[in-house]
């Protein structure tokens, strides 16, 4: 991971890209179909019973069109499917197929292995400190006065 980024948001972004690069490359090396960052984000935000495109967009923080494109790519790969929402005849739920669940579980295992490599490189205490800081309650985003 490079250290060109001087501020925390950039460092966090570089850390995320480091993980994604490792996970995506490892999954492809294991013979899995390549996915994009947007497609991986869809998987991370899906509820077990399914989630609407609108809700996925809200959770990920992107437009419905962006999620729609990612979802349809994953449907084409056989990893997701659309199903009627029992709570509304107008909505469709996006959910994983059995193949999608298999790939998602494999990706979760790979993430654990990549985290173990990181712990070897920076120490378990460092990984634990990062996890503790990122899972702490930061409260609402502050509104600060720009200098």
From TrEMBL:
Single Gene Ontology BP annotation: response to stress
GO molecular function, one term: DNA-binding transcription factor activity
SMART domains recorded: HTH_MARR (SM00347)
Stored Gene3D superfamilies: Winged helix-like DNA-binding domain superfamily/Winged helix DNA-binding domain (1.10.10.10)
One matching Pfam family: MarR_2
UniProt superkingdom: Bacteria
Domain HTH marR-type as annotated: residue spans: 5-147
InterPro entries found in the cross-reference section: HTH_MarR-typ, MarR/SlyA-like, WH-like_DNA-bd_sf, WH_DNA-bd_sf
Protein name: MarR family transcriptional regulator
């Amino acid at each position: 991971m490079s250290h060109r980024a001087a501020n925390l948001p950039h460092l966090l972004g570089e850390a995320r890209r480091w993980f994604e690069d490792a996970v995506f490359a490892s999954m492809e090396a294991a013979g899995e179909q390549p996915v994009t960052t947007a497609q991986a984000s869809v998987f991370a935000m899906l509820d077990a019973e399914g989630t609407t495109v609108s809700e996925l967009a809200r959770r990920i923080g992107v437009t419905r069109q962006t999620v729609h494109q990612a979802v349809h790519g994953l449907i084409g790969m056989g990893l997701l499917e659309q199903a009627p929402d029992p709570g509304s005849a107008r909505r469709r739920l996006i959910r994983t197929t059995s193949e999608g669940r298999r790939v998602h579980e494999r990706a979760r295992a790979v993430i654990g292995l990549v985290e173990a490599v990181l712990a070897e490189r920076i120490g378990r205490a460092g990984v634990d400190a990062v996890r503790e800081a990122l899972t702490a309650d930061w409260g609402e985003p502050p509104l600060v006065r720009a200098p």
